[in-house]
Known about the structure:
Layout: H1 2-17, H2 22-33, H3 36-59, H4 62-70, H5 72-92, H6 103-118, H7 122-134, H8 143-175, H9 181-204
Amino acid sequence: xxxxxxxxxxxxxxxxxxxxxxxxxxxxxxxxxxxxxxxxxxxxxxxxxxxxxxxxxxxxxxxxxxxxxxxxxxxxxxxxxxxxxxxxxxxxxxxxxxxxxxxxxxxxxxxxxxxxxxxxxxxxxxxxxxxxxxxxxxxxxxxxxxxxxxxxxxxxxxxxxxxxxxxxxxxxxxxxxxxxxxxxxxxxxxxxxxxxxxxxxxxxx
Length: 205
C-alpha cells in the first residue's frame, strides 16, 4: 500500500511539473550559459514552490487554498509582469556569456524560478484535481500515508526538473564554447510570449 501511494505521488509530481513553461526556459538558459549548478538552483526554486502547493493540496488546507484562489488574479498579474521584465532583460542582453556567476547568481536563479512558480496558483488546482482523481487522499488518511504521498510528489517533481537540467548539461557539452547570444534572444522571446499569454488570460477571465 505504501509503495502504491509513493508511486502515485511520483506520477502526480511528474504530471504537474511536465508541462513546458517559462521556468523550464529559465532552467535551460541558466544551465547552458552559466553551468549545471545554476540550472539546478533554478530547478530547486521550482521544486520548492511546487512542494508548497503539493503539501497544501495533500493536507487539504482549505484556508490557504481559498486565499490563493481569491488572489489568483493579482498573483497571475505579478507573474505576467515578471515574465515580461525577464524577457526584455534577456532579449536586450548584449553578452554572449552570462557574467553574473557566483553565489548571487545562484540565489537569483532560485528566486526567479520560485517567484514565477509560486505566482501561478493554478498549480494547486492541478495537484488537487490529480489527488482527487487518484483517490489517494482522504479525511481519514493517516499522517504516515499522507507523508508518503508528499514524498512521492517530491520525487516526481525532482525527477522532472533534475532531468530537464540534465538535458541542458548534455546540450552544453554538445554546443561547446559557442556564442550564446542567440539564446538570449530565443529565451527572451519565449519569456515575453509566456508573459503576454499570462496577462491576456487574466483579462479574458
